Amino acid sequence: MSARTAVPLSELPPHTKAVVRRLAGGRPFAGRLAGMGVVVDSPLEVLQNVGHGPVLILVRDTRIALGRGEAAKILVDAAA
Amino acid sequence: MSAPRHEKVREIVLALAGQPNAGKSTVFNLLTGLSQHVGNWPGKTVDRKEGTLERGGARIRVIDLPGTYGLSAHSEDERIARDFILHERPDVILMIADASALERSLYLLTELVVLPVPVVLGLNMMDVAESEGIEIEPHVLEAALRMPVVPLVARRAQGVSALLSVALRVARAPQECVPARPEIAASHRDVLTRVADLLVGNLPAPYPPDWAALKLLEGDPEIAERARQWLPAAAWNEIDALLRAHEDAVLDVASGRYEWIGRMLRAGVKRPQLGQVSLTDRLDRVAVHCVWGVVLLLAVFALVFGLTFGIGSPLQEWLDTGVVLPLRDGVRAALAGRPAWLAGLLADGMLGGAGLVFTFLPILVVFFAALALLEETGYLARAAYVADGFMHSLGLHGKSVLPLFLGFGCNVPAVMGARVIASRSGRLLTILLAPLVPCSARLAVLAFLVPVFFHEYALAIALLFVVANLLVLAGVGVVLSRTVFRGQHAAFIMELPLYHVPDRRNIAHFVWSNTWAFLRKAGGLILLLSALVWALSYSPQAGVEGSLLARFAQRLAPLGTVLGLDWRMLVALLTSFIAKENAVATLGILYGAGANGVGLAATLATHVAPASALSFLAATMLFIPCAATVAVMRQEMGDWRWTLFGVTLLLAIALGAAALIYQVSRMLGVGMVHA
Fold first, then answer.
1. CATH code at A68?
2. Is residue A23 part of a domain?
3. What is the ipTM of this complex?
4. Residue B110: enclosing H or E segment and its boundaries?
């Protein structure tokens, strides 16, 4: 992965693949995401992001809907 | 099964664990069948399901732990699951994993294997995994994990019997079970050891020091609080300093678990790299589409609404007129020679209340079946996803959309439907808002009264009431979520499971346990409230005119003046507590409709000013929910304080709105002259 700065997941267009770099929502947030497959270094794919409302991602064979606010707290590196 | 009678029967306790959507309830239903018992976890509002069976001379108790993604202290369900394992020490944990998303599914396993109870792993949905091209070799996994692994297709009852045999074998020789355990990243290993050392000897019995140390490193607030109380100051201060220096450990612990899972699965699981499009992907192209998804959502909800009330309402009416009424007449006839109050109490007070409970059943059964079907197939999560943007603006979770929508038919299933929402604050807010949805009974009162006063404008006024009512709902939602529930906004993080063919048994169990819970918990309260209001409206003499209720309403005259309501309208409001449609019937009795051949509509038109009518309608639409709704609110909130809060809030809103409407009309000088 390049040294580019991580961007909020909520800003990625659909069908982008990315890797989680940082979780900025505190321990309870990180704890909830961990059980659903989202931890630092997790690869994921944005399935849907229409620019408002929740974001849909695919991570470890699981489709997860994230509120926009939640998605903004997940910082990722977009794959080329 | 063929155990000799004299042999002492040993009881074995199995705890069923698993992430949501892994098929845990299917396994539970297969194992325990009709022996299930649903209660509550002590002091909690979360359902506790338990069942028994006998096998090989042993009596087996199966406890269904709440479905959880992990065992942190951050959610009530996860605390319940881990407290049960730590304090009750089941003989074996049966962990059900979803074979089609094994990596994520085993996260819970990494939390279970560090607890002092042997684990047996059931790999469910092997058929789904296979159809996705994932190849799993259970024996290889078994060798890596050093624990028994049993493949399952629970939906077709495959493998469940084998799972039980393996669990019993492990229960009889638990010492043979030494599972592989994930290790913490090297950078934190020394800290973990040091924290565990400081804990040894200072922790009360059920807490293993190495587990507690790991939880501390994860930043577990509950264990931190306990450790602070248990440990000598010096030891705690050292731990506290270590934890502060290693605050990043929480992320490492979680990532470390997935690394470990990756290593465990490397040999036993092969997965395709080809990007084949699954059924779920194809269905989701419509279901979560930003336009078609909304269309589908509305269509599905309209269908559920149509089914619930299309099937439920005629049955309800048939029960009422075909069963309850003849029964009441029968009681009255049988008690013909006895005091009138006795017949009244039994026929009207008690049987009236029982009849009310009874007539809710058809609607609830159909609604629960529809809800279970949507949940089972995986569609409910999509509906929540599509609706989340809108619901979010009201401070609600996307999943609140179906219960609130159903509220237009009846508030009772709306309140009970809130149980699909995982977070307590989200559930409470939905339950508090559900009674503000104008139900069909209130719409019927509206439809009857508006034309009496507003003739050609009737439709517009009625529509205005419904819209204003919904705006009040939205406003209350916004205000509550920013005040009472401030900062408790549950993060919207929700799995959209793969689509599944629904399991009949699961739906049947869901319908049965929820309907039974309504009868058992809410039924008695509805009966009691109904008898109470009946008694108040009947004593000290027959007829509501001279009753305690009427005297009470007359005492409220000052309030009535502010609202523009005379005592008769106040009594009508009070009796509408039993059922909203009572409002019209009470008005009929009190205004002496039917005398001299003048109908209620005409009588009201000559006695009541339109401004008062508006005030009365506003109060009826927003007034405290009916007895049945209050009873289920109490049942679902699990606590009287919240119920009273909800009732008081609605009362304040209703009276406030009524007073506002009346006073504004008066000031503007409209509607004071009788039509």
1. 2.30.30.90
2. yes
3. 0.94
4. helix B107-112
